[in-house]
């Protein structure tokens, strides 16, 4: 019951101001966010890479409301690409082997503004180009269902020039199994997640079990296909199923990867890596952490209880 309310709150400016100003919020946020500044994100990434993991960095921000803000997103990612290159995290050649990659949300590049589809494509392209030159991959995060067609179309267009560009699909959406067939046939890098947005019954499964079953169907399609599956989940049952299916299909551990969020199931991240799996940690950083943080609270009521206790103990 709390999840939908928190997801609605994630888009409320009033609650954003309240939560962002609460004196203890930062310490709770720190569990999920690597820091507010670029050097902190690079330092956290260096630590993760040093321990045998790989990373995908997200400069936090979404739903920008003007073009200048969209350009600032582009510049922040260009700066991030330079910092990662200086830190030695690019790969020799563009592809899937880099220790670091970028995750971008097209709404932060202007997708929701008038003419937003083309604007977001125009703004994100220089980032993908610079990253490709540095051997750093880029994955387009997926936002709510109203953006799916546009985001997949930008992904297709980018892949014509930069084939390693990744997409994300959400098993909660009714359309996703079909999207997986198309992406797997096209040989794309695809991150499969359950989906973090509140979606209507007309387009999305409403029961957790249905979302999980859809995840299993989708992972079978992706693992059987010609692309590079990136399984974004902390769910131990789904991870076990993915390993079994991959093995049955003859996928080697370097033919797919698991992805998890910074601060969540860190022991499992290290355990899978120690067993020879590729594990990529999604590392968000920046000052605009509110919506991301609220989605993490919505996923797990215990996180909300922890947050409320920390407020009460002041
Ligand atoms: P589930 O929510 O069932 O959690 C399984 C277990 O994981 C829980 O029992 C708990 O132990 C742990 N766990 C999960 N979430 C937790 C939390 N917040 N705090 C503490 N423990 C938690 N979504 C989207 O719509 N678009 C996107 O682009 C992305 N990108 C993305 C990248 C990566 C690398 C990951 C891992 C996830 C995403 N997501 C996403 C989020 C995704 O859709 C989903 O909301 C979360 O991963 C939670 O779902 P799980 O699959 O982990 O299962």
Automatic annotation (TrEMBL):
<keyword id="KW-0547">Nucleotide-binding</keyword>
<feature type="binding site">
    <location>
        <position position="296"/>
    </location>
    <ligand>
        <name>substrate</name>
    </ligand>
</feature>
<dbReference type="Pfam" id="PF01619">
    <property type="entry name" value="Pro_dh"/>
</dbReference>
<feature type="binding site">
    <location>
        <begin position="233"/>
        <end position="234"/>
    </location>
    <ligand>
        <name>FAD</name>
    </ligand>
</feature>
<comment type="pathway">
    <text>Amino-acid degradation; L-proline degradation into L-glutamate; L-glutamate from L-proline: step 1/2.</text>
</comment>
<feature type="binding site">
    <location>
        <position position="170"/>
    </location>
    <ligand>
        <name>FAD</name>
    </ligand>
</feature>
<dbReference type="GO" id="GO:0000166">
    <property type="term" value="F:nucleotide binding"/>
</dbReference>
<keyword id="KW-0274">FAD</keyword>
<keyword id="KW-0285">Flavoprotein</keyword>
<dbReference type="InterPro" id="IPR008219">
    <property type="entry name" value="PRODH_bac_arc"/>
</dbReference>
<dbReference type="InterPro" id="IPR029041">
    <property type="entry name" value="FAD-linked_oxidoreductase-like"/>
</dbReference>
<keyword id="KW-0642">Proline metabolism</keyword>
<protein>
    <recommendedName>
        <fullName>proline dehydrogenase</fullName>
        <ecNumber>1.5.5.2</ecNumber>
    </recommendedName>
</protein>
<feature type="binding site">
    <location>
        <begin position="194"/>
        <end position="196"/>
    </location>
    <ligand>
        <name>FAD</name>
    </ligand>
</feature>
<dbReference type="GO" id="GO:0010133">
    <property type="term" value="P:L-proline catabolic process to L-glutamate"/>
</dbReference>
<feature type="binding site">
    <location>
        <position position="142"/>
    </location>
    <ligand>
        <name>FAD</name>
    </ligand>
</feature>
<dbReference type="InterPro" id="IPR002872">
    <property type="entry name" value="Proline_DH_dom"/>
</dbReference>
<dbReference type="InterPro" id="IPR015659">
    <property type="entry name" value="Proline_oxidase"/>
</dbReference>
<keyword id="KW-0560">Oxidoreductase</keyword>
<dbReference type="GO" id="GO:0004657">
    <property type="term" value="F:proline dehydrogenase activity"/>
</dbReference>
<feature type="domain" description="Proline dehydrogenase">
    <location>
        <begin position="51"/>
        <end position="306"/>
    </location>
</feature>
<feature type="binding site">
    <location>
        <position position="295"/>
    </location>
    <ligand>
        <name>substrate</name>
    </ligand>
</feature>
<feature type="binding site">
    <location>
        <position position="105"/>
    </location>
    <ligand>
        <name>substrate</name>
    </ligand>
</feature>
């Amino acid at each position: 019951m709390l999840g939908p309310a928190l997801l609605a709150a994630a888009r409320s400016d009033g609650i954003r101001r309240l939560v962002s100003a609460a004196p203890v919020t930062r310490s709770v946020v720190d569990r999920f966010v690597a820091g507010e500044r670029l050097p902190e994100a690079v330092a956290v990434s260096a630590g993760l890479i040093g321990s045998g993991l790989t990373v995908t960095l997200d400069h936090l921000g979404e739903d920008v409301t003007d073009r200048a803000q969209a350009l600032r997103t582009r510049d922040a990612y260009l700066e991030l690409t330079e910092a990662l290159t200086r830190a030695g995290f690019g790969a020799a050649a563009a592809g899937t082997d880099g220790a670091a990659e970028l995750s971008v949300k097209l709404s932060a590049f202007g997708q929701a503004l008038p003419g937003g589809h083309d604007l977001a494509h125009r703004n994100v392209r220089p980032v993908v180009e610079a990253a490709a030159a540095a051997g750093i991959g880029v994955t387009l995060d997926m936002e709510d269902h109203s953006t799916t067609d546009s985001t997949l179309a930008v992904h297709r267009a980018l892949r014509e020039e930069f084939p390693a560009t990744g997409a994300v699909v959400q098993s909660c959406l009714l359309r996703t199994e079909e999207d997986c067939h198309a992406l797997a046939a096209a040989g794309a890098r695809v991150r499969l997640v359950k989906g973090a947005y509140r979606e209507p019954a007309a387009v999305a499964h409403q029961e957790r079990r249905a979302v999980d079953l859809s995840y299993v169907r989708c992972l079978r399609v992706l693992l059987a296909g010609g692309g590079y599956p990136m399984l974004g989940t902390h769910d131990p049952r789904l991870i076990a199923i993915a390993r079994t299916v991959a093995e049955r299909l003859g996928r080697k551990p370097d033919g797919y990867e698991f992805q998890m969020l910074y601060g969540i199931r860190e022991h499992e991240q290290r355990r899978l890596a120690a067993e020879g799996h590729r594990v990529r940690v999604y590392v968000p950083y920046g000052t605009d952490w509110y919506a991301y943080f609220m989605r993490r609270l919505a996923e797990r009521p215990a996180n909300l209880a922890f947050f409320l206790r920390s407020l009460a103990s002041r």
